[in-house]
Amino acid sequence: MSVTRLCSGCLTGLLFLACGPDVVYQEEVELPATGWPYADSLTFTFPVTDTSGRYDLVLTVAHTADFPYQNFYVHLDTHLPSGMLRSQPLSLQLADTFGDWYGDCSGGVCRTDISLQEGTRFTEVGEHRLVVGQFSRDAVLGEVTGMGFRVVRR
Helices (H) and strands (E) in the chain — how many of each? Predict the structure, then answer.
């Protein structure tokens, strides 16, 4: 193999590595140190301008290493521009059955990405809202420090 072909291949590989995901929306919400009350929901409002593309929808949960559960439940309400509402409960798995955290942990805080949908298409152009409600067995869910949501174009 010639040096020119080898250098060309290396440069092409580096180019693909440098191209990260196309994040079209991202927002993070920090939760109070006192915990996430059952009555407080988090709202993520994002515009959709392209219904032909495919997107990944990802929820990020930040929690301390002292979080006492393997998972917790949330209630997701998706509000479409037409006024249609889609609702569903969802278990957010943060640890395996041995208690090992799925996310990246550093400095006592863990961040876990949870895929809500992969390769989905939006059916409507306009402003969409995702409302995430704490739906656990605790009136105030402690040790959850933040929640994020992002939309990534494939």
Answer: 1, 11
Q: Where are the alpha helices (DSSP H) in the chain?
A: 3-18
Question: How large is the average pLDDT for residues 86-92?
Answer: 97
Q: Band the pLDDT of 13: cuts 50, 70, 90.
A: very low
For residue 123, give the nearest of 84, 149, 75, 76 by alpha carbon: 84
| Distances, alpha carbon 71 to alpha carbons 115, 125, 132, 137, 153, in Å | 15, 34, 15, 11, 28
Task: Give the tens place of pLDDT for each residue, 113-153.
Answer: 999 999 999 999 999 999 999 999 999 999 999 999 999 99
d(CA 6, CA 13): 11
What residues does 25 pair with on adjacent strands? 151
